[in-house]
User: Fold this.
Amino acid sequence: MSSIEQRSTLTQFLIEERRRFPQARGDFNALILDVALACKAIAKSVAFGELGGLYGNHAEDQGGSINVQGETQKKLDVLSNQLFVRITEWGGHLAGMASEEMDTPYQIPTRFPRGKYLLVFDPLDGSSNIDVNVSVGSIFSILRHVGQSDPVTEQDFLQPGNQQVAAGYALYGPTTMLILSVGNGVSGFTLDPHLGEFMLTHPRLKVPEQSQEFAINASNSRFWEAPVKRYVDECLAGKTGPRGKDFNMRWIASMVAEAHRILMRGGVFLYPRDSKDPSKPGRLRLLYEANPIGFLMEQAGGRASTGQVPMLTVQPTGLHQRIGLVFGSKEEVERIERYHAEPVEWHDEHNPLFSERGLFRD
Ligand code: F6P
Ligand code: MN
Assistant:
């Protein structure tokens, strides 16, 4: 039997969800379908790789281009951003957009009607992995445009993550998947490359509560705060350490791919606040990385935190604000929060890995 006979399409899934809300007009579903189309278009560009002439940096002949984050833009970063904008701006569902690749909010051109939602996105997360053919993805978050401001302002986007109407990501890996939450659990869809349709393959995703896998960029260990050092060290100490079990470690450098692994089989991801660059309180961005992934984790029974407070309660102060991020299996994230809350009575010198001959000696 073909997949179309056995499974729901994304469209069918959205229509069935909407039937639970008879007052809904369908704007929201149309918006999600446009976002899904943008992701399919990006998947196609990513899949062509070198053949598409899309590897390398944007505007290389003019010395390259740098985004508001101070990061060199790849050709595919710029193209993915354009695809998101062009495919979603015309439908009349949006009042404005914000993206990692645009310094200020994007205004819907006056020739199109304005809608009641705001779309926030990271068009191509993990883009340092593009040229080496490792999974990348797109992350998105949908908010209500609560003010009536026209044009939209940065302030309109500064809503805590618990106000998100929907969030999701597309992962461009061996298969293309779309993971989505409209605030009623998390569902996973796989792109059928023949039909060009996202098919429901992973209904009701749940993050396992316990895990033995963690992900952190250990090259930053000398900049970590004590609670993070403690957590990682206890994991590394394995069976004979305080945790009494061995852990595995992973680092893909594509947060969206790490989030997917954690949704599938549990684990914890940390890109904590550290002392590497005092101007950057963390590496990842609150509005289009931490909040949508945090929403998905919580909707799947996992947890997302800054280390100190639940991620979704943070009041944003800037469109491109960075923040320390910890997410994944509930018990692990809670443990990390506990270590942050406990008085610092744990010292490096008691710890074999940070001691004179230790692995993570500063
Ligand atoms: O968008 C930021 C990002 O590419 C994430 O996807 C990833 O987790 C992180 O940066 C990788 O950071 P680093 O280069 O420090 O490993
Ligand atoms: Mn990113």
Residues 125-126, 128, 217, 253-255, 283-284 surround 6-O-phosphono-beta-D-fructofuranose (ligand 1) (CB under 6 Å).
